[in-house]
Amino acid sequence: MHQPLRRRSPSFAELFTPKIVSVLREGYGARELRADAIAGATVAMVALPLSMAIAKASGTTPDRGLFTAIVGGLLISLLGGSRFQIGGPAGAFIVVVAASIERQGFDGFLLSTLIAGVLLAVMGFMRLGAYIKYIPHPVTVGFTSGIAVIIFASQLTDLFGLTLPGREPAAFIPKLEAIAAASGTVTPAAVVIAAGSIGLILALRRLRPHWPGFLLAIAFASLLAALLARLGHPVATIGSKFGGIPSTLPLPSLPPLSLEKISAAFPDALTFAVLGGIESLLSAVVADGMTGRRHRSSCELVAQGFANMGSALFGGICATGTIARTATNVRAGAHGPIAGVIHALVLLALMLVAAPLAAFIPLAALAAVLAVVSWNMAERAEFAAILRTSRGDSAVLLATFFLTVFRDLTEAIAVGVVMGAILFMHRMAELVEVETHTRLIDADEADTASPRGDYEGPGKDPDVLVYRIAGPLFFGAASEVAAVLDRIGQTPRVFVLDMSRVPFADATAAKSLASFAKKAGRSGARVFAAGAPPVVREVLIEHGAGEPLVTYVDTVADATRPPTADEPAEAA
Fold first, then answer.
1. Does 506 lie in the same domain as 373?
2. Which residues form the STAS domain (predicted)?
3. In a domain, 93, yes or no
4. What is the spatial distance between Cα 493 and Cα 527, in angstroms, rounded to a whole number?
5. Which candidate among 87, 493, 569, 570 keeps its CA 20 to 30 Å from the CA of 264?
């Protein structure tokens, strides 16, 4: 029999060498630098308004988003396993970051981000990056669409210029109730700015898709806000709400540490780590699909870990790979990770030079940017396609979506993954087939002595019964196979189980096979397993389905042929 090909395990250097090192080894000249400089500057124009808007929507000040994009984005590009990944604050984190800040305060949130960075680095060094991709697609679509709904709801206050009596609640239903209660405080000037910003972004996306639509909308809105203020219709701005943006990065510092604080921060840290890993690897996969390249998932997780640790030390929020900015980077012609480095440096230069101008940005314009982002995040086509094609996938999708919106993102992902795993096991169990020419008795029918039909196999021996098992023989399918074997209405001299089409088996399947073999043995029958692949045979023997209960042979013919003169009859 042919032995299965074994893949060589990659070395540590192959797994964890940053892509920037690989790119520089290939040869890096002026042409590559020019391409990366153009792409990096282009992405920075997109990242500047987005970073501030995401930080503001997360319940903190806009400058924290810039710190994240600069420090986190720089470390992700320097250490990451993707050529084109652009790191920074992401819309997917808005919900969990806002909830964490509300529960723990900002220092507690920073500690959670720091611990999340450590967890991500550990996940990377343990090579767990390859497993995150097994999260079912309906789960990803469900929580992404749920987050999009929450983000849009959180922007209604600034889109309409509402005045809430207290802090806006983080939970979805209380948030809507508070917004409805404040519906009488609409600011017409804010509505005009928000509508104009959204209209300009959409128009530029259609007419001039390569222009930095978000940045131009922010500039337009700032000028419009200044004009409306002169006419006696002021609106809330970054300056009036937060006092502006600092023109330098803060000095790195650790948040307050204690065993009690670490224990309280750990649940949020785990959520940040899982969501960050999912988001960053999804972004890397998107970049691979656009370029034909392959990222190093474990290396990417390590980079995400250090990026979150660095962001927390500089007072930023959670950092991750961002799909929209990464796609922009690819479309702008980036050659490698140096484009991401330049993106971070351009953001730093803009903050050093133009920070005073940020004070004039109206909050309605930032809300307009995030309203467009949430619309793009919603994955409406994917959502509808899943609902149309599969009831099982639809159940996973809807459970994840509604739990994300009305309960908690961590709970939504956990429930969705468990439901997806159960659905997968059910589908795998349905793939297992047991083929035979013998009629099976019903579960409540007494054993019968009626003659069975001949098996159309080697020798056509009426005392040899052959069953062909096809498909994965694991715990989800073992009970089905055992039920079929138990429904055999008579006992021949030899049972042959053709397992040549069984790709793998587990301990539960081995126990079911051993139980059947014992039952057959008590009736004087022998059980042969023919053609089982080496991996399947090892598992079955290891868990009790070995000699003398089951005899393993290479082919069905080996089990059914008559004994030769050199071997005892009972060995046939």
1. no
2. 462-563
3. yes
4. 9
5. 87
Domain total of the chain: 2
The dihedral sign for the CA sequence 110, 113, 115, 121:
negative
- Contact status, residue 322 vs residue 86, Cβ threshold 8 Å: yes
461 found inside a domain: yes
Same domain for 336 and 463?
Answer: no
Strands (E), 224-341: 320-321
The answer to whether the CB of 455 falls within 8 A of the CB of 495 is no
Range of the domain at 219: 30-423
Q: Report whether the peptide linkage leading into residue 548 is cis, meaning its omega lies within 30 degrees of zero.
A: yes
Q: Which residues pair with 498 in a beta bridge?
A: 468, 530
B/e letters for 43-59, b = 16+ CB within 10 Å, e = fewer, are bbbbbbbbbbbbbbbbb
Helix (H) or strand (E) holding 154: helix 137-154
**Rounded to the nearest 5°, which phi and psi values hold at 527?**
-120, 125
Angstrom distance (rounded) from CA 313 to CA 330: 30
- Taking the C-alpha atoms of residue 194 and residue 450, their distance in angstroms, rounded to an integer, is 82
Q: Model's pTM, two decimal places?
A: 0.74
Say yes or no: 236 and 169 in one domain: yes
Q: Give strand ranges (E) for 103-229.
A: none
As a whole number of angstroms, the distance between CA 181 and CA 425 comes to 47
Q: What's the rounded Cα separation, in Å, for the pair 355 and 342?
A: 19
User: 556: domain CATH number?
Assistant: 3.30.750.24
Asked if 402 and 437 sit in the same domain, the reply is no
Within 13 Å, how many C-alpha atoms sit on residue 285's CB side?
11
Question: Is residue 164 located within the same domain as residue 194?
Answer: yes
Start-to-end Cα distance in the chain: 21
Model confidence pLDDT, tens digit, residues 243-294:
878 888 999 999 988 999 999 999 999 999 988 998 898 888 888 888 888 8
Strand extents, DSSP E, 291-447: 320-321, 433-435
pLDDT one-digit tens code per residue, 394-407: 999 999 999 989 98
CA neighbor of 282 nearest in space, from 420, 134, 418, 395: 134
Q: 162-176, 215-229, 387-401, 465-479 — which is least confidently predicted?
A: 465-479
